[in-house]
Description:
Number of helices: 6
Bound molecules: guanosine-5'-diphosphate
Shape: globular
Radius of gyration: 17 Å
Low-confidence stretches: 212-222, 224-230
Number of strands: 7
Amino acid sequence: xxxEATFVRSAAAVSDLPADGIPEIALVGxxxxxxxxxxxxxxxxxxxxxxxxxGKTRLANIYRVQVAxxxxxxxxxxxxxGYARGGxxxxxxxxxxxxxYFARERRRPGQGAEAPSIGRRPAALLLVDSRHPGxxxxxxxxxxxxxxxxxxxxxxxxxxKLARGERIRALRELESVFQRPVLPVSxxxxxxxxxxxxxxxxxxxxxxxxxxxxxxxxxxxxxxxKKATR
Length: 230
Ligand code: GDP
């Protein structure tokens, strides 16, 4: 079934971000990793602007998505982080908007800054390029994400660009780096998209329930099956 998806807006600052309390799934990854292409492939329309030129935008693009009678949620496409291959900490890699996005207190729809937080944090998908497993910037992003979200999954993009042997090696390396199953996808061939939808639905449902404590964020649980589809 085709998901209902609309572009909500681009946000340059936290004040522009949606505050209606629906679950959020943040897409995090290096510039040019294929986030926009993946969004378009998932929703089967050209909602997101893709480009061959890296680092084109410092805005968060927000999409509202609903599949059949499922919970509506926002996909929040955060600005891509840089190309540095090593040495940069996660704190340097992410821009101010990304930091502010994850630090934001979330409140019930229609309630102002004085209202108590409902403690709902976004879930996240970390997108990594399957051709470049184990980049320091991706590892740093993953380490940092653990402090910022309760649930996350790792997705390996552009897997159509790898020959069979390369792909097996790359996925093995990725799973060793991230210590969890990694889902290979292609926006070009559509491979892995059904499985990614299952992960997204799980994330949307988990982030629609406020977590119990803000003081002890639990380590992200593996959301993908033990053996990812190859
Ligand atoms: P973003 O900066 O992360 O939003 O990346 P884009 O979606 O704009 O993609 C960057 C480049 O990678 C573009 O030239 C895309 O056509 C290409 N690309 C993205 N996804 C895929 C994929 O699954 N397979 C292949 N072969 N190319 C892709």
